């Protein structure tokens, strides 16, 4: 009876509103062209707060941008996070004595100089980018494209492997990936990379004078492959790490898998002594900023960068060298952001 | 703005299908329906434009994303004159707007709100 009364009351109110609107001569404005906000109908707000604030505390001042991007921007304003990865050509740049940035704004690629040629890390979105950005970058940095011997693919998403087949066919580059990644990538198509070299979890793979330590870190994709490699700042040795993939998966299972991988990789990185933060997207290792800071790294005297032969010749630290402790904190921030994302979506992850 | 005749529409559709594989993008951005595919984070959003009909497909790294329970909006026109058109969630992974034929130079925006609160946004300009 009361529901019937409510229904009559609603209809009466709607008719009254119609009359009021008509009397005012108003018509409703056109439909809104601004996208809606992302919402989290199943959010555990207290749990999100806990992990978000834990991440912020761990991040401190130096990792605040990484915290903001992974914990906030990419979770609730994803289109802004995406637009920070719009494609844009970035000048190829020597970052360490043996490491070169040859990627673009949407996705990174790196070249590692070894005594037996170049090892490329990731191959960009398509053959055009592989040729006109990656290979052209190699040329501009003073190498011959024939110097490219190997290509490591960090995970089985197209922005990392779609240029691979072109590099294989055109320059005879041999591609390296995890077994799981190969199972997805190599489907027999003429446009996909064909399996050359499969590496496994914990494997040390050596090319000339350079050894790469691989850790299979599923989560972003099942076959994500993280890389630890030596880099040199004017002769001073450091260890850099490129994590296989940081994008947080949608499912609770995917998040739990990614979380376990981050913990595992944290242990590997700590024991190895990783102190350099590198990534396969510029938004994750702050490459847009670091490349410019590197260019303007201040010397103690006026000799010019070409005259520097030691890190101690500079006033400023190398922008990619964050230190062992800070690299660990970076991983912890990522873990808390994964947990915050799960809490926003009402997902339960193991402790 | 001049309306396209049948021959021009055919040429336009052909041109769209030719440029679709060339669209610069992030991730596994593959046009699977002969349209224009763009990245929206980890999603691929593909626009298929025909006479009087725009269909938008959602795909997550090769897997079709169901549009059941989602709402979609197509925004068409030059920036100062854009209008929002509610889209119908079609069978499977598609949203459909009937009675719409974007013109050359138009900017098309699409946004969808999924039942779980996720929002997907993509934009193309008609070449």
Keywords:
A: alpha/beta; Metallo-beta-lactamase, Chain A; 7-stranded mixed β-sheet; 12 strands; 17% strand; B: 127 residues; mainly beta; Immunoglobulin-like; 9-stranded antiparallel β-sheet; 11% helix; 44% strand
What does this molecule look like?
- The complex is a heterodimer of chains A (351) and B (127).
- With 351 residues, chain A is an alpha/beta fold.
- Chain A has a single domain, classed as Ribonuclease Z/Hydroxyacylglutathione hydrolase-like (Metallo-beta-lactamase, Chain A, 4-Layer Sandwich), CATH 3.60.15.
- Chain A contains twelve helices and twelve strands.
- In chain A, helix 2 packs antiparallel against helix 3, helix 3 runs parallel beside helix 12 and helix 9 runs antiparallel to helix 12.
- Chain B is mainly beta and 127 residues long.
- In chain B, 11% of the residues lie in helices and 44% in strands.
- In chain B, strands 1, 2, 3, 4, 5, 6, 7, 8 and 9 form a nine-stranded antiparallel beta sheet that branches.
- Classes of the chains: A alpha/beta (351), B mainly beta (127).
- Chains A and B meet through helix 4 of A and strand 6 and strand 8 of B.
Topology (elements, then pairings):
The complex is a heterodimer of chains A (351) and B (127).
Chain A: H1 2-24, H2 45-59, H3 64-76, H4 78-83, E1 93-96, E2 99-101, E3 110-114, E4 117-121, H5 127-140, E5 148-152, H6 158-161, H7 164-171, E6 174-178, H8 179-185, E7 197-199, E8 204-207, E9 210-216, E10 225-233, E11 236-242, H9 252-272, E12 276-278, H10 282-285, H11 287-295, H12 324-344
Parallel strand pairs in A: 4-5, 5-6, 6-7, 11-12
Antiparallel strand pairs in A: 1-2, 2-3, 3-4, 8-9, 9-10, 10-11
Chain B: H1 6-19, E1 36-40, E2 43-50, E3 53-60, E4 63-64, E5 71-77, E6 83-89, E7 94-98, E8 107-113, E9 119-125
Antiparallel strand pairs in B: 1-2, 2-3, 3-4, 3-7, 5-6, 5-8, 6-7, 8-9
């Amino acid at each position: 009876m009361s529901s019937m009364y409510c229904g009559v009351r609603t209809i009466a109110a709607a008719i009254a509103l119609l009359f009021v609107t008509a009397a005012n001569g108003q018509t409703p404005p056109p439909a809104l062209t601004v996208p809606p906000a992302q919402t989290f109908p199943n959010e555990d707000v207290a749990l999100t707060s806990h992990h978000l604030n834990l991440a912020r505390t761990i991040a401190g001042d130096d990792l605040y941008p990484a915290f903001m991007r992974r914990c906030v921007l990419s979770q609730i304003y994803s289109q802004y996070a995406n637009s920070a990865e719009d494609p844009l050509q970035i000048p190829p740049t020597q970052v360490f004595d043996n490491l070169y940035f040859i990627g673009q704004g949407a996705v990174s690629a790196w070249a590692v100089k070894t005594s037996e040629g170049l090892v490329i890390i990731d191959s960009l979105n398509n053959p055009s980018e592989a040729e006109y950005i990656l290979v052209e970058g190699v040329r501009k940095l003073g190498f011959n494209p024939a110097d490219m011997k190997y290509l490591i693919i960090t995970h089985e998403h197209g922005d990392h492997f779609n240029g691979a087949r072109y590099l294989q066919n055109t320059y005879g580059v041999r591609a390296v990936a995890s077994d799981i990644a190969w199972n997805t990538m190599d489907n027999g198509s003429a446009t996909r990379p064909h399996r050359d070299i499969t590496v496994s979890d914990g494997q040390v793979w050596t090319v000339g004078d350079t050894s790469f330590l691989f850790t299979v870190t599923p989560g972003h994709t099942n076959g994500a492959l993280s890389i630890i490699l030596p880099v040199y700042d004017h002769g001073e040795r450091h260890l850099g790490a490129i994590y296989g993939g940081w994008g947080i998966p949608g499912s609770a299972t995917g998040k739990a898998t990614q979380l376990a991988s981050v913990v595992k990789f944290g242990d590997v990185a700590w024991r190895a002594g990783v102190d350099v933060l590198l990534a396969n997207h510029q938004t994750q290792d702050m490459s847009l900023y670091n490349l410019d800071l590197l260019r303007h790294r201040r010397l103690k005297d006026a000799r010019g960068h070409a005259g520097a032969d030691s890190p101690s010749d500079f006033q400023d630290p190398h922008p990619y060298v964050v230190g062992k402790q800070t690299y660990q904190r970076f991983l912890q921030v990522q873990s808390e952001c994964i947990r915050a994302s799960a809490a926003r979506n009402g997902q339960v992850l193991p402790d | 703005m001049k309306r396209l005749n049948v021959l021009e529409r055919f040429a336009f559709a052909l041109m769209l299908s030719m440029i679709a594989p060339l669209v610069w993008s992030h991730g596994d951005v593959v046009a699977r329906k002969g349209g224009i595919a763009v990245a929206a984070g980890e999603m691929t959003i593909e626009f298929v434009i025909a006479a009087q009909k725009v269909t938008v497909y959602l795909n997550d790294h090769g897997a079709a994303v169901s549009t059941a329970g989602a709402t979609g909006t197509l925004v068409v026109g030059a920036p100062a004159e854009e209008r929002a058109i509610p889209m119908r969630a079609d069978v499977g992974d598609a949203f459909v707007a009937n009675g719409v034929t974007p013109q050359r130079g138009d900017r098309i925006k699409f946004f969808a709100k999924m039942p779980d609160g996720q929002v997907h946004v993509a934009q193309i300009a008609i070449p």
